[in-house]
Design goal:
Helix content is 14%, strand content 28%. By secondary structure, the chain is an alpha+beta fold.
């Protein structure tokens, strides 16, 4: 399986999410969604993120993120979430590219106008015919009763999709990010607090990081300039703040992504292909799905998540938007989609939804957002060891050497203190099965620095178990 954020491919990933040794029974709830990257080479599992090199070369240095793999390259194809992707490559990861702004003129616009004209003509004929028939049969004594044409008189029961959407839409925004060179794209975000903070994906605002322009438009049409408060490449989470924010902002309620169950209903809101305020529905189709993403550039930095998987339709432009449960609470941030082929609407070169979308669990995103608002920088959990990012189903192997000739196991770090050594293969983190380096990274990043975790590993064919306390790393570099 491959994953992409917005139109680029990534390296091979396991076919199934990490499976707990003893899965606890899912707790009943209203309804919620779920979702879930290796890159060839070796990577540092510090802060849950990998740092690596290619399989044929030495292990990567201690810096993060790892350089992109030689093969497969990050190109169109794979999976992405929020930003749909294109291509059909295999492997882990996801990448994205900004969706170009709609262009005016002939072509599809002309076709649309023609179709619209035809529809109006057909509507006129139908209306005229209906009137004639009604007039000719006016004295038949029909007892048919017509509903009022006023949509405002139609009431939706609480808990229906229409009711949830009506409450959530006013708190979502369409984000436009533009670089100093004029490049950019469209994404989505949602109101996080009354101070004007908006949560979205890092890749949505990436173009505006270094002096670019950022705007957020509400469904009401009100548009605000915004600034980046902080962004976390590894988590693919960012927080922006509205300038001159209104005083009547209503933050979306946050749910508990740890309690979602497969089969829970999901509602996604976003701007697919620039179509703002679009609502789609589905279910949680899997949990703890390992997903990696990248922008596909030569300097790309990988992002990892243990995602909620949903079949709600997610396309380019949905990135950063909320994934809601049946009660309207946010359970995830739409970030990537699985795509089977290249090409998108109007030949844009981007793929569309095939029913496999991935969202960053809100419990993780909330922690990251709070850190960004507080300090402007992300904080990552880490074990302090370099692990291989090669495609594997056996576990996460600690490499023989770290990046740029550094030690594979950080001296005095959590792994070192726990007695882990190069060559050890980590097979479980707590009760979650670890089948590869990227899976380990994604699972580590669902924790916070200071958390105690139990690591199961193989050495010389024998299983060993040890408890360690996760360390921390501040910033993406």
């Amino acid at each position: 399986m491959s994953t992409e954020n917005e139109g680029t491919a990534v390296p091979p990933a396991p076919s199934a999410p990490p499976v707990p040794v003893a899965s606890p029974a899912a707790s009943p709830q209203a309804a919620v969604p779920t979702a879930g990257a290796p890159e060839q080479g070796a990577a540092q599992a510090s802060a849950g993120h990998a740092e690596g090199a290619h399989p044929s070369g030495p292990a990567p240095d201690g810096s993060w993120p790892p350089p992109p793999p030689a093969t497969p390259s990050y190109a169109d194809g794979g999976t992405g979430a929020g930003y749909g992707g294109s291509g059909g490559g295999s492997g882990w990861g996801s990448s994205y590219q900004q969706q170009p702004a709609p262009k005016s003129g002939r072509g599809r616009g002309g076709l649309l106008a023609a179709v619209l004209a035809a529809a109006l003509v057909a509507g006129g004929l139908g209306g005229g015919l209906g009137y004639t028939l009604a007039k000719n049969n006016d004295d038949t004594g029909s007892t048919t009763v017509s509903a009022s044409s006023s949509a405002s008189q139609v009431k939706r029961a609480p808990g229906t999709i229409a009711s949830v959407a009506a409450k959530a839409l006013p708190s979502t925004v369409t984000i436009e990010a533009e670089s100093t060179s004029g490049e950019g794209g469209t994404g989505t975000g949602f109101v996080f607090d009354t101070q004007g903070h908006i949560v979205t994906n890092n890749h949505v605002v990436a173009d505006a990081v270094d002096g670019g322009k950022l705007t957020a438009t509400f469904p009401s049409g009100k548009k605000y300039d915004a600034e980046i408060v902080g962004h976390a490449q590894g988590y693919d989470v960012a927080v922006i703040k509205l300038k001159n924010a209104p005083s009547d902002l209503k933050p979306l309620a946050l749910g508990d992504s740890d309690k979602v169950a497969v089969g829970d209903e999901t509602i996604a809101i976003g701007a697919p292909f620039g179509l703002s305020n679009t609502v789609t529905t589905g279910i949680i189709s899997a949990k703890n799905r390992p997903v990696a993403s990248s922008d596909g550039s030569s300097t790309s930095k990988a992002s990892y998540m243990s995602a909620l998987q949903t079949d709600a339709s997610i396309n380019p432009g949905n990135s950063g938007g909320p994934l809601l449960d049946a009660s309207g609470a946010v359970i995830g941030i739409n970030s990537a989609i699985q795509s089977s082929s290249s090409g998108g609407l109007g030949g844009s070169g981007q793929s569309g939804s095939i029913g496999l979308g991935f969202a960053i669990p809100i419990n993780q995103a909330k922690y990251v957002a709070q850190q960004l608002i507080k300090t402007g920088k992300p904080v990552y959990a880490k074990i302090g060891a370099s692990v291989s990012l090669e495609d594997s189903t056996d576990g996460a192997k600690i490499t023989d050497q770290g990046a740029a000739g550094s030690a594979a196991v950080e001296s005095g770090g959590p792994a070192d203190n726990a007695g882990l050594k190069p060559g050890d293969v980590i097979t479980k983190l707590d009760d979650d099965v670890i089948d590869s380096g990227p899976t380990l990274i994604g699972e580590i990043w669902t924790h916070k620095p200071g958390d105690k975790v139990t690591i199961t590993y193989k050495r010389d064919g024998k299983d060993h178990t040890v408890e360690l306390t996760l360390g921390s790393r501040v910033g993406d570099s």
